[in-house]
UniProtKB/TrEMBL annotation:
InterPro entries: HTH_MarR-typ, MarR/SlyA-like, Tscrpt_reg_MarR-type_CS, WH-like_DNA-bd_sf, WH_DNA-bd_sf. Residues 12-145 form the HTH marR-type domain. It comes from the Bacteria. This is Transcriptional regulator, MarR family. Keywords: DNA-binding, Transcription, Transcription regulation. GO terms for molecular function: DNA binding; DNA-binding transcription factor activity. GO terms for biological process: response to stress. The keyword Cytoplasm does not apply. The keyword Transcription regulation applies.
Length: 206
């Protein structure tokens, strides 16, 4: 894809190069927005992970997978944020061997100010006409799906649309059920991101 003449007649090389260039631009955008927030991009990703991930899935291991870092690197990022008073480590009440990450009051405040992080990217995408946007979404979805299959990416999403989700089968406080973890879930928990989310298109044939 880096050979310009080869790209001319090769849509795979052209699209691969386009994605590579995008990754560079995204890096630049998020770095600039992180500098403005006084945090590094991975620190911001960690705060957003703690904010949006279902409480019982907010582990260091899942964080490492979500940001594409090693476990050791994730631990260092977490410790830095604990030192800043933005993040706390707590024991999982259901399994004392597991440590969960949670935002402190100061961290919640900081995370709420990060609502618009990545805005520069959204501003660029906003300029694309609707009909092109629909094709872009399905094309990017296909790439993400393949990268996910190859374990280059973890795609965390809320329960809706997951093959394991059984909505409205429980009681008022925990109305939904997950067949994978065999647990009833509150409405709030089902609306948070889960790294085990499996869309129908990913279900393995029996
Ligand atoms: S595996 Fe699916 S249904 Fe279960 S908690 Fe995760 S997203 Fe929800």
């Amino acid at each position: 894809m880096f050979e310009p003449q080869q790209r001319r007649n090769n849509p795979v090389a052209r699209n691969s190069m386009a994605l590579f260039r995008l990754s560079q631009a995204i890096k630049k955008i998020t770095q600039a927005e992180s500098d403005a927030a006084g945090l590094s991009p991975v620190q911001i990703q960690t705060l957003l992970f703690a904010r949006y991930t279902r409480d019982d899935m907010a582990t260091v291991g899942n964080l490492a997978a979500a940001i594409g870092a090693t476990h050791v690197t994730a631990v260092k990022i977490v410790n830095g944020l604990v030192k800043k008073g933005l993040l706390a480590k707590i024991q999982n009440p259901e399994d004392r061997r597991v440590t969960l990450l949670t935002l402190t009051a100061k961290g919640r405040e900081a995370a709420s100010r990060l609502q618009d992080w990545g805005r520069g990217l959204e501003e660029a995408v906003e300029r694309i006409p609707d009909e092109i946007l629909a094709n872009l979404e399905s094309g990017l979805g296909a790439v993400i799906s393949i990268l996910r299959e190859k374990n280059y990416l973890v795609v965390s999403e809320p329960c809706l649309g997951c093959v394991h989700f059984r909505p409205n089968v429980g009681d008022t406080s925990t109305p939904h059920y997950c067949e994978l973890i065999r647990k009833y879930l509150s409405q709030q928990a089902a609306q948070k991101e889960c790294p085990e989310h499996t869309p129908a298109s990913h279900q393995k044939a029996p």
